[in-house]
Amino acid sequence: MKINGILKDLKIRGLISQITNINSLYIKINKKPITLYCGFDPTSDSLHLGHLIPILCLRRFQLFGHKPIILIGGATGMIGDPSFKINERILNDKDTIYLWTEKIKKQFFNFLDFESKKNSAIILNNYNWFNSMNLLSFLRNIGKNFSINKMINKESVKTRIIKNNIGISFTEFSYNLLQSYDFAYLNKMYNVCLQIGGSDQWGNITSGIDITYKLFKNKVFGLTVPLITNKNGTKFGKTEKNTIWLDPKKTSPYEFYQFWININDDDVYNFLKFFTFIDVLDINIIREKNYNLNILLKYKKILAEEITKIVHGKKSLNSIKRIIKSLFYGSIEKLKEKDFINIMKSGIPLTILKKSISLKRFLVFSKISKSLSISKRLIESYAISINGKIITKIEYIFNDKDRLYNKYTLIKKGKKNYFLIYWKK
Protein backbone atom coordinates (compact mmCIF):
# COMPACT_ATOMS: atom_id res chain seq x y z
CA MET A 1 0.00 0.00 0.00
CA LYS A 2 1.28 3.46 -0.91
CA ILE A 3 1.35 5.69 2.17
CA ASN A 4 0.64 9.42 1.79
CA GLY A 5 -0.11 12.36 4.09
CA ILE A 6 1.42 12.74 7.54
CA LEU A 7 2.80 9.19 7.67
CA LYS A 8 4.61 9.70 4.37
CA ASP A 9 6.01 13.01 5.61
CA LEU A 10 7.30 11.39 8.82
CA LYS A 11 8.76 8.45 6.92
CA ILE A 12 10.72 10.46 4.37
CA ARG A 13 12.01 12.70 7.16
CA GLY A 14 13.32 9.63 8.99
CA LEU A 15 11.07 10.34 11.95
CA ILE A 16 9.55 6.88 12.33
CA SER A 17 11.60 4.56 14.49
CA GLN A 18 8.88 1.96 15.12
CA ILE A 19 5.20 1.83 14.29
CA THR A 20 2.41 -0.66 14.88
CA ASN A 21 0.41 -1.80 11.86
CA ILE A 22 1.14 1.15 9.56
CA ASN A 23 -1.34 0.01 6.88
CA SER A 24 -4.29 -0.12 9.30
CA LEU A 25 -3.28 3.21 10.81
CA TYR A 26 -3.07 4.78 7.36
CA ILE A 27 -6.55 3.52 6.45
CA LYS A 28 -7.92 5.00 9.67
CA ILE A 29 -6.18 8.34 9.17
CA ASN A 30 -7.28 8.46 5.54
CA LYS A 31 -10.98 8.16 6.51
CA LYS A 32 -11.00 11.13 8.87
CA PRO A 33 -8.70 13.10 11.21
CA ILE A 34 -7.62 11.28 14.38
CA THR A 35 -6.78 12.31 17.92
CA LEU A 36 -3.31 11.41 19.18
CA TYR A 37 -1.25 12.12 22.27
CA CYS A 38 2.25 12.28 23.66
CA GLY A 39 3.16 12.23 27.34
CA PHE A 40 5.68 14.42 29.15
CA ASP A 41 6.62 13.86 32.78
CA PRO A 42 7.47 17.03 34.74
CA THR A 43 10.99 16.00 35.82
CA SER A 44 12.24 19.59 35.76
CA ASP A 45 10.90 23.13 35.53
CA SER A 46 11.57 23.26 31.78
CA LEU A 47 11.42 21.14 28.67
CA HIS A 48 14.76 20.52 26.97
CA LEU A 49 16.12 19.73 23.51
CA GLY A 50 15.35 16.03 23.89
CA HIS A 51 11.63 16.86 23.93
CA LEU A 52 11.67 18.75 20.65
CA ILE A 53 11.23 15.94 18.13
CA PRO A 54 8.03 14.48 19.68
CA ILE A 55 6.62 17.99 20.21
CA LEU A 56 7.32 18.95 16.60
CA CYS A 57 5.76 15.65 15.49
CA LEU A 58 2.56 16.63 17.28
CA ARG A 59 2.70 19.91 15.39
CA ARG A 60 3.20 18.07 12.10
CA PHE A 61 0.09 15.96 12.81
CA GLN A 62 -1.88 19.09 13.66
CA LEU A 63 -0.83 20.78 10.41
CA PHE A 64 -2.23 17.74 8.58
CA GLY A 65 -5.59 18.24 10.33
CA HIS A 66 -5.29 15.87 13.31
CA LYS A 67 -5.97 16.76 16.94
CA PRO A 68 -2.98 16.60 19.34
CA ILE A 69 -3.19 16.07 23.09
CA ILE A 70 -0.35 16.94 25.45
CA LEU A 71 -0.47 14.67 28.48
CA ILE A 72 1.52 15.95 31.43
CA GLY A 73 2.41 13.21 33.88
CA GLY A 74 1.50 14.77 37.19
CA ALA A 75 0.96 11.24 38.54
CA THR A 76 3.58 9.29 36.56
CA GLY A 77 6.10 12.04 37.34
CA MET A 78 5.73 11.14 41.03
CA ILE A 79 6.71 7.52 40.23
CA GLY A 80 9.54 7.87 37.72
CA ASP A 81 10.02 6.14 34.38
CA PRO A 82 12.78 3.49 34.58
CA SER A 83 13.16 3.32 30.79
CA PHE A 84 16.88 3.02 30.08
CA LYS A 85 17.79 4.83 33.29
CA ILE A 86 20.90 3.48 35.01
CA ASN A 87 19.76 4.38 38.51
CA GLU A 88 16.50 4.89 40.37
CA ARG A 89 15.04 8.37 39.90
CA ILE A 90 14.89 10.74 42.84
CA LEU A 91 11.26 11.10 43.90
CA ASN A 92 10.04 14.69 43.93
CA ASP A 93 7.29 15.94 46.22
CA LYS A 94 3.79 16.83 45.07
CA ASP A 95 4.23 20.61 45.37
CA THR A 96 7.44 20.60 43.32
CA ILE A 97 5.83 18.54 40.57
CA TYR A 98 2.83 20.89 40.52
CA LEU A 99 5.09 23.94 40.07
CA TRP A 100 7.08 22.22 37.32
CA THR A 101 3.85 21.18 35.61
CA GLU A 102 2.57 24.75 35.52
CA LYS A 103 5.85 25.99 34.04
CA ILE A 104 6.19 23.45 31.25
CA LYS A 105 2.50 23.79 30.32
CA LYS A 106 3.21 27.34 29.17
CA GLN A 107 6.04 26.20 26.90
CA PHE A 108 3.77 24.05 24.73
CA PHE A 109 1.94 27.17 23.54
CA ASN A 110 5.04 28.04 21.47
CA PHE A 111 4.56 24.94 19.33
CA LEU A 112 0.88 24.02 18.98
CA ASP A 113 -2.32 25.81 18.04
CA PHE A 114 -4.68 25.90 21.03
CA GLU A 115 -7.27 28.14 19.35
CA SER A 116 -8.06 26.22 16.17
CA LYS A 117 -11.78 25.67 15.62
CA LYS A 118 -11.26 22.28 13.97
CA ASN A 119 -8.36 20.58 15.77
CA SER A 120 -7.29 22.70 18.70
CA ALA A 121 -4.60 21.13 20.89
CA ILE A 122 -5.42 20.44 24.53
CA ILE A 123 -3.34 19.79 27.65
CA LEU A 124 -4.34 17.15 30.20
CA ASN A 125 -2.78 15.91 33.43
CA ASN A 126 -2.96 12.22 34.41
CA TYR A 127 -2.95 13.20 38.08
CA ASN A 128 -6.61 14.14 37.61
CA TRP A 129 -7.72 10.52 37.10
CA PHE A 130 -5.15 8.65 39.15
CA ASN A 131 -5.68 10.84 42.20
CA SER A 132 -9.30 9.68 42.55
CA MET A 133 -8.50 5.99 41.99
CA ASN A 134 -8.07 3.76 45.05
CA LEU A 135 -5.47 1.00 45.28
CA LEU A 136 -7.90 -1.93 45.27
CA SER A 137 -9.66 -0.68 42.14
CA PHE A 138 -6.34 -0.19 40.43
CA LEU A 139 -5.10 -3.70 41.24
CA ARG A 140 -8.41 -5.41 40.39
CA ASN A 141 -9.31 -3.54 37.23
CA ILE A 142 -5.92 -2.68 35.77
CA GLY A 143 -3.23 -4.77 37.44
CA LYS A 144 -4.90 -8.08 36.58
CA ASN A 145 -4.45 -7.32 32.87
CA PHE A 146 -0.66 -7.30 33.10
CA SER A 147 1.67 -10.28 32.95
CA ILE A 148 4.69 -10.06 35.25
CA ASN A 149 6.56 -12.33 32.82
CA LYS A 150 6.08 -9.86 29.98
CA MET A 151 6.93 -6.88 32.16
CA ILE A 152 10.18 -8.44 33.35
CA ASN A 153 11.20 -9.16 29.77
CA LYS A 154 10.81 -5.55 28.65
CA GLU A 155 14.25 -4.20 27.80
CA SER A 156 13.99 -1.18 30.12
CA VAL A 157 13.21 -3.42 33.11
CA LYS A 158 15.47 -6.32 32.19
CA THR A 159 18.50 -4.03 31.98
CA ARG A 160 17.98 -2.88 35.55
CA ILE A 161 17.19 -6.34 36.97
CA ILE A 162 20.37 -7.99 35.68
CA LYS A 163 22.45 -5.33 37.40
CA ASN A 164 22.29 -6.77 40.90
CA ASN A 165 23.93 -3.76 42.52
CA ILE A 166 21.19 -1.46 41.18
CA GLY A 167 17.96 -3.38 40.63
CA ILE A 168 14.56 -1.76 40.31
CA SER A 169 12.01 -0.83 42.96
CA PHE A 170 8.35 -1.84 42.84
CA THR A 171 7.57 1.89 42.45
CA GLU A 172 9.40 2.21 39.14
CA PHE A 173 8.34 -1.29 38.09
CA SER A 174 4.70 -0.16 38.32
CA TYR A 175 5.29 2.83 36.03
CA ASN A 176 4.44 0.69 33.00
CA LEU A 177 0.93 0.06 34.38
CA LEU A 178 0.23 3.75 34.91
CA GLN A 179 1.36 4.89 31.47
CA SER A 180 -0.46 2.03 29.80
CA TYR A 181 -3.70 2.96 31.53
CA ASP A 182 -3.26 6.55 30.32
CA PHE A 183 -3.67 5.30 26.76
CA ALA A 184 -6.80 3.32 27.63
CA TYR A 185 -8.32 6.23 29.55
CA LEU A 186 -7.64 8.71 26.74
CA ASN A 187 -9.08 6.28 24.21
CA LYS A 188 -12.32 6.00 26.19
CA MET A 189 -12.70 9.67 27.14
CA TYR A 190 -11.16 11.48 24.14
CA ASN A 191 -11.23 8.86 21.36
CA VAL A 192 -7.41 8.84 21.18
CA CYS A 193 -6.19 6.12 18.84
CA LEU A 194 -2.47 6.89 18.54
CA GLN A 195 0.31 7.46 21.04
CA ILE A 196 3.69 8.81 19.97
CA GLY A 197 6.91 9.02 21.94
CA GLY A 198 10.66 8.51 21.89
CA SER A 199 11.96 5.08 20.92
CA ASP A 200 12.70 4.38 24.61
CA GLN A 201 8.91 4.40 25.18
CA TRP A 202 8.13 1.48 22.85
CA GLY A 203 7.53 -0.99 25.68
CA ASN A 204 5.17 1.37 27.52
CA ILE A 205 3.30 2.22 24.33
CA THR A 206 2.73 -1.41 23.28
CA SER A 207 1.51 -2.19 26.80
CA GLY A 208 -0.99 0.65 26.45
CA ILE A 209 -2.19 -0.83 23.16
CA ASP A 210 -2.72 -4.21 24.84
CA ILE A 211 -4.66 -2.93 27.85
CA THR A 212 -6.84 -0.66 25.69
CA TYR A 213 -7.94 -3.70 23.72
CA LYS A 214 -8.45 -5.82 26.86
CA LEU A 215 -10.54 -3.16 28.58
CA PHE A 216 -12.54 -1.73 25.68
CA LYS A 217 -11.88 -4.01 22.65
CA ASN A 218 -10.59 -0.99 20.74
CA LYS A 219 -7.62 -1.23 18.39
CA VAL A 220 -5.16 1.62 18.87
CA PHE A 221 -1.71 2.36 17.51
CA GLY A 222 1.78 3.39 18.56
CA LEU A 223 4.58 5.29 16.86
CA THR A 224 8.02 6.13 18.15
CA VAL A 225 10.48 8.72 16.90
CA PRO A 226 14.26 8.20 16.98
CA LEU A 227 16.26 9.16 20.03
CA ILE A 228 19.23 11.24 18.93
CA THR A 229 22.51 10.85 20.77
CA ASN A 230 25.83 12.65 20.62
CA LYS A 231 28.95 10.85 19.44
CA ASN A 232 29.86 9.97 23.04
CA GLY A 233 26.50 8.25 23.50
CA THR A 234 24.91 10.94 25.68
CA LYS A 235 21.46 12.23 24.84
CA PHE A 236 21.38 14.95 22.22
CA GLY A 237 21.11 18.39 23.76
CA LYS A 238 23.23 17.53 26.79
CA THR A 239 26.62 19.19 26.42
CA GLU A 240 29.67 18.76 28.61
CA LYS A 241 28.70 21.90 30.49
CA ASN A 242 24.91 21.72 30.71
CA THR A 243 21.58 20.76 29.19
CA ILE A 244 20.11 22.84 26.37
CA TRP A 245 16.80 23.96 27.85
CA LEU A 246 13.83 25.47 26.02
CA ASP A 247 13.32 28.01 28.81
CA PRO A 248 15.17 31.21 27.76
CA LYS A 249 16.00 31.89 31.42
CA LYS A 250 17.92 28.61 31.67
CA THR A 251 19.48 28.59 28.19
CA SER A 252 19.52 32.00 26.52
CA PRO A 253 18.23 32.23 22.94
CA TYR A 254 21.76 33.26 21.90
CA GLU A 255 23.27 30.11 23.47
CA PHE A 256 20.49 28.06 21.91
CA TYR A 257 21.25 29.52 18.48
CA GLN A 258 24.97 28.95 18.85
CA PHE A 259 24.37 25.31 19.82
CA TRP A 260 22.90 24.67 16.35
CA ILE A 261 25.66 26.62 14.60
CA ASN A 262 28.20 24.33 16.28
CA ILE A 263 26.60 20.95 15.55
CA ASN A 264 28.56 18.25 13.78
CA ASP A 265 28.79 18.81 10.01
CA ASP A 266 27.43 15.32 9.33
CA ASP A 267 24.18 16.12 11.17
CA VAL A 268 23.10 19.18 9.18
CA TYR A 269 21.09 17.34 6.53
CA ASN A 270 19.16 15.09 8.94
CA PHE A 271 18.54 17.85 11.47
CA LEU A 272 16.97 20.04 8.79
CA LYS A 273 14.48 17.19 8.24
CA PHE A 274 13.96 16.50 11.96
CA PHE A 275 13.73 19.99 13.40
CA THR A 276 12.36 22.24 10.65
CA PHE A 277 9.28 22.40 8.45
CA ILE A 278 11.26 23.04 5.27
CA ASP A 279 9.97 20.86 2.43
CA VAL A 280 11.93 17.61 2.16
CA LEU A 281 12.40 18.12 -1.60
CA ASP A 282 14.22 21.38 -0.87
CA ILE A 283 16.32 19.68 1.80
CA ASN A 284 17.27 16.93 -0.65
CA ILE A 285 18.57 19.57 -3.07
CA ILE A 286 20.83 20.77 -0.27
CA ARG A 287 22.26 17.29 0.13
CA GLU A 288 23.02 16.99 -3.57
CA LYS A 289 25.25 20.05 -3.53
CA ASN A 290 28.98 19.61 -3.03
CA TYR A 291 29.64 20.29 0.60
CA ASN A 292 32.29 22.79 1.59
CA LEU A 293 32.72 24.88 4.72
CA ASN A 294 30.84 27.88 3.32
CA ILE A 295 27.83 25.81 2.23
CA LEU A 296 27.74 23.94 5.54
CA LEU A 297 27.83 27.19 7.50
CA LYS A 298 25.03 28.59 5.34
CA TYR A 299 22.75 25.63 6.09
CA LYS A 300 23.70 25.56 9.75
CA LYS A 301 22.50 29.17 9.88
CA ILE A 302 19.25 28.16 8.17
CA LEU A 303 18.78 25.36 10.71
CA ALA A 304 19.66 27.60 13.67
CA GLU A 305 17.33 30.37 12.49
CA GLU A 306 14.40 28.05 11.78
CA ILE A 307 14.50 26.20 15.09
CA THR A 308 15.26 29.33 17.15
CA LYS A 309 12.25 31.06 15.59
CA ILE A 310 10.05 28.05 16.44
CA VAL A 311 11.24 27.78 20.05
CA HIS A 312 11.88 31.42 21.00
CA GLY A 313 9.96 33.45 18.44
CA LYS A 314 10.85 35.92 15.72
CA LYS A 315 11.72 38.77 18.12
CA SER A 316 14.38 36.68 19.87
CA LEU A 317 15.80 35.59 16.54
CA ASN A 318 16.03 39.21 15.40
CA SER A 319 17.80 40.07 18.66
CA ILE A 320 20.34 37.30 18.04
CA LYS A 321 20.96 38.56 14.51
CA ARG A 322 21.56 42.07 15.87
CA ILE A 323 24.00 40.70 18.45
CA ILE A 324 25.94 38.73 15.84
CA LYS A 325 25.99 41.66 13.43
CA SER A 326 27.06 44.06 16.17
CA LEU A 327 29.77 41.86 17.65
CA PHE A 328 31.31 40.65 14.43
CA TYR A 329 30.53 43.43 11.96
CA GLY A 330 30.89 46.50 14.16
CA SER A 331 27.32 47.74 14.62
CA ILE A 332 27.35 48.18 18.40
CA GLU A 333 25.09 51.24 18.25
CA LYS A 334 22.22 49.09 16.90
CA LEU A 335 22.08 46.90 20.00
CA LYS A 336 18.95 47.29 22.11
CA GLU A 337 18.79 47.02 25.88
CA LYS A 338 17.12 43.60 25.65
CA ASP A 339 20.02 42.43 23.48
CA PHE A 340 22.44 43.07 26.32
CA ILE A 341 20.37 40.89 28.61
CA ASN A 342 20.79 38.16 26.01
CA ILE A 343 24.54 38.85 25.80
CA MET A 344 24.87 38.55 29.59
CA LYS A 345 23.50 35.00 29.36
CA SER A 346 25.41 34.09 26.21
CA GLY A 347 28.63 32.90 27.81
CA ILE A 348 30.65 36.01 26.90
CA PRO A 349 32.97 36.76 29.89
CA LEU A 350 31.21 39.14 32.25
CA THR A 351 32.73 41.51 34.80
CA ILE A 352 30.58 43.37 37.32
CA LEU A 353 31.92 46.75 38.42
CA LYS A 354 30.62 49.38 40.82
CA LYS A 355 33.26 52.10 40.43
CA SER A 356 35.11 53.40 37.41
CA ILE A 357 38.70 52.27 36.92
CA SER A 358 41.33 52.69 34.27
CA LEU A 359 41.16 50.51 31.17
CA LYS A 360 44.66 49.29 31.88
CA ARG A 361 43.73 48.01 35.35
CA PHE A 362 40.45 46.57 34.11
CA LEU A 363 42.28 44.38 31.59
CA VAL A 364 44.26 42.85 34.43
CA PHE A 365 41.29 42.66 36.82
CA SER A 366 39.20 40.80 34.25
CA LYS A 367 42.18 38.58 33.30
CA ILE A 368 42.20 39.81 29.72
CA SER A 369 45.87 40.53 30.30
CA LYS A 370 48.31 39.21 32.90
CA SER A 371 49.96 42.47 33.89
CA LEU A 372 49.78 46.25 33.54
CA SER A 373 52.71 46.18 31.14
CA ILE A 374 50.86 43.71 28.87
CA SER A 375 47.75 45.90 29.11
CA LYS A 376 49.84 48.86 27.98
CA ARG A 377 51.19 46.97 24.98
CA LEU A 378 47.65 45.84 23.99
CA ILE A 379 46.41 49.43 24.02
CA GLU A 380 49.47 50.71 22.16
CA SER A 381 48.98 48.10 19.44
CA TYR A 382 45.34 49.19 18.87
CA ALA A 383 44.08 45.80 20.07
CA ILE A 384 41.48 47.10 22.56
CA SER A 385 38.21 48.81 21.74
CA ILE A 386 35.33 50.06 23.86
CA ASN A 387 31.85 49.80 22.33
CA GLY A 388 33.41 49.47 18.88
CA LYS A 389 35.84 52.41 19.24
CA ILE A 390 39.58 51.67 19.37
CA ILE A 391 41.24 53.15 22.44
CA THR A 392 44.76 54.55 22.07
CA LYS A 393 45.10 56.47 25.34
CA ILE A 394 47.27 54.43 27.74
CA GLU A 395 45.76 55.95 30.91
CA TYR A 396 42.16 55.81 29.68
CA ILE A 397 39.57 55.83 32.48
CA PHE A 398 36.00 54.63 31.94
CA ASN A 399 33.39 57.39 31.98
CA ASP A 400 29.60 57.65 31.81
CA LYS A 401 29.63 57.83 27.99
CA ASP A 402 31.05 54.28 27.93
CA ARG A 403 27.92 52.93 29.65
CA LEU A 404 25.31 51.91 27.09
CA TYR A 405 21.85 52.19 28.63
CA ASN A 406 23.74 53.30 31.78
CA LYS A 407 24.65 49.66 32.47
CA TYR A 408 26.75 47.97 29.80
CA THR A 409 30.17 48.30 28.18
CA LEU A 410 31.49 46.01 25.46
CA ILE A 411 35.23 45.46 25.36
CA LYS A 412 36.90 43.82 22.38
CA LYS A 413 40.40 42.38 22.30
CA GLY A 414 41.69 41.74 18.80
CA LYS A 415 39.11 40.77 16.18
CA LYS A 416 36.87 38.24 17.94
CA ASN A 417 37.35 38.27 21.73
CA TYR A 418 34.52 40.10 23.49
CA PHE A 419 34.06 40.94 27.16
CA LEU A 420 31.10 42.62 28.83
CA ILE A 421 31.06 44.99 31.78
CA TYR A 422 27.89 45.35 33.83
CA TRP A 423 27.92 48.52 35.93
CA LYS A 424 26.12 47.83 39.17
CA LYS A 425 24.65 50.80 41.03
Index terms:
single chain, alpha/beta, Rossmann fold, Tyrosyl-Transfer RNA Synthetase, Structural Genomics Hypothetical 15.5 Kd Protein In mrcA-pckA Intergenic Region, Chain A, six-stranded mixed beta sheet, five-stranded mixed beta sheet, 11 strands, elongated
What topology emerges from the helices and strands here?
Elements lengths: L4 H8 L5 E2 L2 H10 L3 E6 L11 H12 L3 E6 L21 H14 L14 E4 L1 H4 L4 H7 L6 H5 L2 H7 L8 H4 L1 H16 L1 E7 L3 H15 L4 E5 L27 H9 L6 H8 L4 H9 L4 H20 L1 H16 L7 H8 L5 E4 L5 H7 L6 H9 L3 E3 L2 E2 L17 E6 L3 E7 L2
Structure commentary:
- The chain is an alpha/beta fold and 425 residues long.
- It folds into three domains: 5-225, HUPs (Rossmann fold); 253-344, Tyrosyl-Transfer RNA Synthetase (Orthogonal Bundle); 350-423, Structural Genomics Hypothetical 15.5 Kd Protein In mrcA-pckA Intergenic Region, Chain A (Roll), CATH 3.10.290.
- The protein is 44% helix and 12% strand.
- The chain is built from 19 helices and eleven strands.
- Strands 1-6-5-2-3-4 form a six-stranded mixed β-sheet, with helices on both faces.
- α10 (175-190) packs across α11, α12 packs antiparallel against α15 (293-312) and α13 (268-275) runs parallel beside α15.
- The protein is elongated, with a radius of gyration of 26 Å.
- The termini are far apart.
- 35% of the residues are buried.
- The mean pLDDT is 89.
